[in-house]
Each structure stands twice: as C-alpha cells, then as structure tokens.
Amino acid sequence: MIICPNCQHKEMNGAIYCSKCGAQLIDVTIATHKIHTAEARQEAQRDTGRTQPPLPAHLQSWISLNMIESGQILPLADRTEFTLGRSEEGQPIVPDVDLSPHNAYANGVSRLHAVLKLIQEQIVIVDLGSSNGTYLNGIRLPPYVETPVAHGDVIYLGKLKMQVLIE
Question: Half-sphere exposure of residue 115, counting CA atoms within 13 Å on the CB side?
Fold first, then answer.
C-alpha cells in the first residue's frame, strides 16, 4: 500500500495519483501518449491510403459495457486496463471511461470508482475504495481486490447499472 503524503489515504501499490485528493504519489515525470481508437485508425487509413498493422487480438475491443438505463454500448479497446468513474470540473484526474453522461453523480459513482483489467486472458474488476461500492451480480466487492468478471455479469457502480459484454 502507498500512503498519500497529502491526505494519508491508502492506495494500491503502483498508483500514481491519490484517488481521494488527486495528489501525485510518485515523483516521476510522466509522459502521455495518444491513444487511437478504431474509428480514428480507419480514418487515418483512408487519408493516407496505407494500412496499419492490426492490433493484437487481445486488444481489439475486448470488452464493452451495456449501460442498462440508456441501452448505450461503450466499447473498450486498445488497452488492457480502464478506470471507471466520473469527471468533475477542476478535477486533476479524469477516469478512462467517464460515466458523467450517464447520470453518474446522481447514481453515486465516485470520481475514480473502479478499474477493469485484462490479465492473462481473464477480466477482473477492482473497486478503488469508492464511497458507494462496486457490486458484481448483486454482491458488494471488497475494495482493492481483483474479482473475475464473465460475459453477461451485471456491475453496479453505486446505483449505476451496466452489463459486461466480452468479445
């Protein structure tokens, strides 16, 4: 565990920022990189006339989230880990999947609520110490514990309900 020097909140090893106050936990210069979505990749191919090498099979939209209330499907691709949460004006940290358009605040979703990971062909979810909890098929998950997820499972972040679709 890493203890935030600013607010004393406990974070998982490897955390770069505190999920409670946003303070940087390690003293490293972090470089950002551009992430291309499948749509941007196709557009780039049309513009240049060249084809790019395909992504490894395990990174091509390996999971999607079906937002139960709206029916919208959120495909996740190009990475092996996605933080789920909501953005807030002035917040230094933004989740990979911003659920704000899905009424996240009113449903009790934390700014950094949970993370979905692909680990050796297995998908897991980890609650990041959220205020209102993460539930998998109605069972509350303990914070900071990797829990396997299967196709069709229903995840609640607070009261926000979504179904996991594994490709």
Answer: 20
CA dihedral 75, 17, 124, 132 (to 10 degrees): -90
Q: Which domain holds residue 125?
A: 54-166
Encode pLDDT of 53-94 as tens digits.
Answer: 444 444 456 789 999 999 899 999 888 999 999 998 888 888
pLDDT over 90 (residue 124): yes
- CATH at residue 145: 2.60.200.20
Residue 141 lies in a domain: yes
Our count of domains for the chain comes to 1
C-alpha to C-alpha distance for 37 and 34, rounded to whole angstroms: 10
**Is-contact 16 26, C-beta < 8 A?**
yes
